[in-house]
Amino acid sequence: RYAARIALERRPVEEWRDRALAEGPVAALIALARLGRSEDLGAIVDRLSALPPSDDVLRAFQLAFIRLGAPGPEIRARALARLDPLYPSGRYAFDRELAQLLAYLGAERFVPRTLGLLASSSAREEQTHYAFVLRTVRAGWTEAERRTYFEWFGRFSDYRGDIGFPLFLRNIRTDALKTLEPEERRKLQPLLDGQFKKATAIYEDPGAVVRRWTFEELVGEVEQPNQKRNLVRGKASFAKAQCLTCHPFAGEGGAVGPDLTGVGKRLSRRDLLEAILRPSKDVSDQFRLTLVQKTDEEVLVGRILDADDAKVVLATDPFAEERLEIPRREIRRQRISMTSPMPEGLLDRLGRLEILDLIAYLLTE
Questions:
Q1: For residue 206, is pLDDT > 60?
Q2: How far apart are CA 220 and CA 215, in angstroms?
Q3: What does the H/E/C string look like for 307-335?
Q4: Contact 255, 248 (CB under 8 A)
């Protein structure tokens, strides 16, 4: 079928357009969506509406709208007349594609139906998809539905598991927050403040300084192999030194810094100790921050998320979803920071044995 579609697309469209619209299967309609004109959209929608519903038909609808442009009111109404009664079907693979289509077309009562699927789905993958689709829907919400939607994110505020998942959820929530009116945001703020908290000891005092450790003081003992170490205490030291806040390790931890799982296979004991004590010696381009000096002399430090001729979007706090948009006209200069986002002195609140156990713990994975 794929080969036949490619062969068809190599023929002049005028030779087969009418036949595709009159009796064509899905593959022929996909070919026409790829090569046709915007004027073909209505006829393609009508032909797809006449076919038995399937995953392929839904994707053909999507491709037609992507390639040939957004439908006008009449074509949109015809598409909704066919697609809306099918939702939900009770089959996830079908509902997954259909939800995206109905959100795009602005179907009525899409929000309550999709919230119902989010609540009834037992698989996290399914729930996350419906939350993702709902994130850009602006109309059709009640106050209770808004609260139900944002309450769902709270289930994962203190999530421990696959590293990227909490960050992905926060990005979904950030998009959804943009759809709120100021009064809606005000009512939900107490709920939102309790989610994805900055529970990061990196900005708190975890205890008194034990010693200002230097590389020369520790490297000799760190390089000694086959020493028995307390790995339980090493794991506790990993958290006490605030490493867990930013770094994923063995399926736990934050997603701000590089994954330390398997770090012993990449670095020697000596290099690992130096990376902790002298974090700015060698900073990967992936984790460098940018210094932005504004015309009013204010200096901002953060990670650039987006930039164009009009603005720079900066994330100044890696643990929050807020993004700072700075107009180009307000920027005097900007440059890459040579200082690591990882602060120095993280081991200063640990004793000698705690440090040795920490290094041993990092070498276990």
A1: no
A2: 9
A3: ECCCEEEEECCCCCCCCEEEEHHHEEEEE
A4: yes
Place of tokens 């519903």: 53
**Position 92, amino acid:** Y
For residue 330, how many other CB atoms are within 10 A of its CB?
Answer: 13
* Residue range 70-76: mean pLDDT, rounded: 96
Give tens-digit pLDDT for 298-347: 888 888 888 899 999 888 877 666 678 999 999 999 998 888 888 888 89
Please compute Rg for the chain using Cα positions.
Answer: 27
Q: Which two tokens stand for residue 62?
A: 């999507």
Return d(Cα 173, Cα 180) in angstroms, integer: 11
End-to-end CA gap in the chain: 47
Block residue for tokens 């994130």: 135
Q: Where are the alpha helices (DSSP H) in 13-155?
A: 13-23, 26-35, 41-50, 55-68, 73-83, 92-105, 110-120, 124-134, 143-154
Q: What pLDDT, in 10s, does the model give residues 235-247? A: 888 888 888 778 8
Residues β-bridged to residue 290: 302, 336
Q: For tokens 């491709």, name the residue.
A: 63
Cβ contacts of 186 within 8 Å, gap of 6 or more: none
Residues 101-135: tens digit of each pLDDT: 999 999 999 999 999 999 999 888 999 999 999 99
Please, are residues 260 and 243 in contact by the beta-carbon 8 Å criterion?
A: yes
Q: Pull the structure tokens for residue 129.
A: 């998809």
Q: In this structure, what token pair is assigned to residue 134?
A: 């709902």
Percent of the chain past pLDDT 70, that is, above it, reads 92
Q: Which helix or strand (DSSP H or E) is residue 360 part of?
A: helix 352-362
Q: Residue 203 has what pLDDT?
A: 33
Buried b (16+ CB within 10 A) or exposed e, 262-273: ebbeebebeebb
**Tokens of residue 220, six digits:** 């000799």
Residue type, 327: P
